[in-house]
Task: structure prediction
Amino acid sequence: MKIKVDTSDASIDITKTSVKEKIENFLITDDHPCVMAQSLFKQERIVFDSYGAMQKNHTASLLLKNIEHYLSEYNFDNNRYQSYLAVFPKDTFKSEQEFEDALWVLLQNLHIQDDMPWDKSVSSDSNDENFSFSIKGKAFYIVGMHPESSRNARKSPYPMIAFNLHWQFEQLREHELYGNVRDTIRERDKERNGSINPVLRDFGTASEALQYSGKRNNENWKCPFHKV
Result:
């Protein structure tokens, strides 16, 4: 079975099975610290598609359509969480800076092409402590991963971006589960890296934008994203 792929500049054959196997090795075989990601994968509740070059306009257009479809099929009436994963098997980045630059180009292009208003439950100002990225009217917490990441938890087999609905974290807080899940993930991350990822912050204490690429930026870092 072929994975849904942007073939406009495809030069290699990618099957859904081969991509899924790489993701399984990353999350399950290598015992990824995020217990939620492991659980969702085991329950086949990580929806993923493969794309061409991250910085191309047509990549953003296809990704936007796929996320819109993902949202249309998401059941917000139960607690069976899902995550959407965009995989970029043909993209290569030599450094964390290159990946971060490409990530924000993609997010800017997504926003420019998005015809829905920003999710009113979060801020659209990337410098604001209540910022979260909005796609098709829904806020997402975004996790960028790639082979050159300095953190094991982000050192994925391909460049990948996880789009996690902000609503899911609010549900965890409502059911008083968020703290336990967060602490478990951070402790497991510490075991694998010798320290907790220094960019991690709870929502409302610092802009999420600092965390998206996984690169450790200093306090003078300015997010390149601009709402239009």
Summary: Strands lie at 46-50, 83-87, 133-135, 138-145, 160-165. Residues 1-13 have pLDDT under 50 and may be disordered. The chain is about 35% helix and 10% strand. Residues 16-210 form one domain.
